[in-house]
Amino acid sequence: MYLFEGLRQQLAEYLPPDQVQRSAAAFKLAAEAHKTQKRHSGEPYITHPVAVAGLLADMRLDHETIMAALLHDVIEDTEFTREDLAEQFGSTVAELVEGVSKLDKLTFNSKEELQTENYRKMIMAMVSDIRVILIKLADRTHNMRTIGHLRPDKRRRIARETLEIYAPLAHRLGIHDIKNELELLGFYALYPWRAKLLESQVKQARGNRRELVERVRKEIETRLLDHGIQARVIGREKHLYSIYQKMLHKELHFEQVMDIYAFRVIVDEVDTCYRVLGALHNLYKPIETRFKDYIAIPKSNGYQSLHSSLKGPHGIPVEVQIRTEEMNLMADRGVAAHWLYKTEENSGTTAQVRARRWMQSLLELQQSTGNAFEFIENVKSELFPEEIYVFTPEGRIIELPQGATPVDFAYAVHTDIGNTCIGARVNHKVYSLSKPLETGQTVEIKTASGSRPNIAWLNFAVTGKARAKIRQYLKGQETREAEQLGERLLRAALGPVSYNDIKEEDFARVCGEVKIESKAQLLREIGLGNMMSVAIAKRLLGEMQQARDEQVVTNNYRSLAIKGADGLLVSFAKCCRPIPGDDIIAHVSPGKGLVIHRSECKNVRGHEEEPGRYFPVQWDNKPDDEFITEVRVEVVNHQGALAKLTSNISATGCNIHGLKTEEVDANIYYIDVALTVHDRKQLADVIRYIRKMPDVQRVARLRK
Question: Where, by residue number, does the polypeptide cross the bilayer (predicted)?
Answer without folding.
Answer: none
